[in-house]
Amino acid sequence: MGHDIANKELAAKGRDRTEWAAQSMPVLRSITERFGREKPLDGVVAAGCLHVTTETANLMIALAAGGAKASLCASNPLSTQDDVAAHLVVDHNIPVYAVRGEDNDRYYDHIRAVLDTGPSITLDDGADLVSTVHREKQALIPGLLGSLEETTTGVIRLRAMEKDGELKVPVMAINDADTKHMFDNRYGTGQSTIDGIIRATNFLLAGSTFVVAGYGWCGRGLAQRARGLGANVVVTEVDPLKGLEAVMDGFRVMPMDEAAPLGDLFVTLTGDIRVITGRHFEAMKDGAIVANSGHFDVEIDKEKLKEMASEVRAPRASVETYVLKGGKRINLLGQGRLINLSAAEGHPAAVMDMSFANQALACEYLAKLDERLAPGVYGVPPEIDTAVSKLKLEAMGIKIDTLTAEQEKYLASWKLGT
């Protein structure tokens, strides 16, 4: 079995932490148990490019229980938990190619390694697997039943490929499932981003001016959690509808140029490039903190910040202090990468339970199709969303009403009115 991990001796710690996470993932656990009985993924070769965390480990264990030949690489150089990687290799014989802090060349070598397994289904977080297939491994395309995409940024890239006529495989946008983005993106990102910031800085949010760039589901969640901790939240947006929603939710909304001199702490969650750049750094206060919670490290213009700095210090493990030529300090967290994973542990397991239940059930869906889907980006079938919702409510011990026959008839009719 091939693998490239930091240290096999970390496996026992990874096992304990993965089992701890599993306690908060009852939906995925129930799917794993069923997969173990039914083996719906027999013959499937599953290659994952995901954050190597305890929650992801439980997903990979579920796929293997279903009969899949699974392998895993990291979707971000700073998100790998080395003990979890060791646990999957040592205790589950799942090939893992991921080392925390790996450089760009090693990162792509790891992507190529999982693709060399000849996958029939890929699981992506940011579309690096699919894009590498299209650039370098086109011989794999005929054998791919499809790909699953976990995150907003990846879906954006894939829709761009589809629009340009470049997408040659079917992709299911897991991120667009209601039981993913409404919970993982909002509650998971909101909590874990603040967790990463506080672990990195020990900064007091109460009374601070906290600038949130982007008011999608992730931005909504972060703005709500920051306000809950006493911060004065400012939202920046380019979408008028989202900007209006932020105003109606009680936040101050303004352009980044106006927010730059006001903010004590800035977090980007847009999926776009250079959201914070040179002129914003010039306008910021001395000691301003800048972090990113979008998938790629392109939202904060790190190159411009380096160019402007006369000195760079590292006062804390996940903090780089850039001293500008006039003496002003800008503090960049987590190298501008996902702060919730570079400085903390990512989303809580309880919310990833739903996201990864979608991944597992979507794998089963693709494996059971009579015919391969045409190339394109597809939504998650509504029945999967419904199944995940029901399983989560059951696991929480919550019951809801059901429609009577009369109510169903009324909702299906146009004849009854005032």
Give me the oligomer status: single chain
- The percent range for strand residues is 15-25%
What is the total tally of β strands?
15
Low-confidence stretches: none
Features:
2 domains; Rossmann fold; 7-stranded parallel sheet; 418 residues; 17 helices; globular; alpha/beta; 8-stranded mixed sheet
Protein described:
By secondary structure, this protein is an alpha/beta fold. It folds into two domains: about 10-180 and about 345-395, Adenosylhomocysteinase-like (Rossmann fold), CATH 3.40.50.1480; about 190-340, 3-Layer(aba) Sandwich (Rossmann fold), CATH 3.40.50.720. It contains 17 helices and 15 strands. It has helices spanning about 10-20, 25-40, 55-65, 80-90, 105-115, 130-135, 150-165, 180-200, 215-230, 240-250, 255-260, 280-285, 300-310, 340, 350-370, 380-395, 405-410, and strands spanning about 45-50, 70-75, 95, 120-125, 145-150, 170-175, 210-215, 230-235, 250-255, 265-270, 290, 310-315, 320-325, 330-335, 375-380. The strands form two sheets. Strands 9-8-7-10-11-14-13-12 form an eight-stranded mixed β-sheet. Helix 12 (about 280-285) links the parallel strand 10 (about 265-270) and strand 11. Helix 2 (about 25-40) packs parallel to helix 3 (about 55-65). The model has no long low-confidence stretch (mean pLDDT about 95).
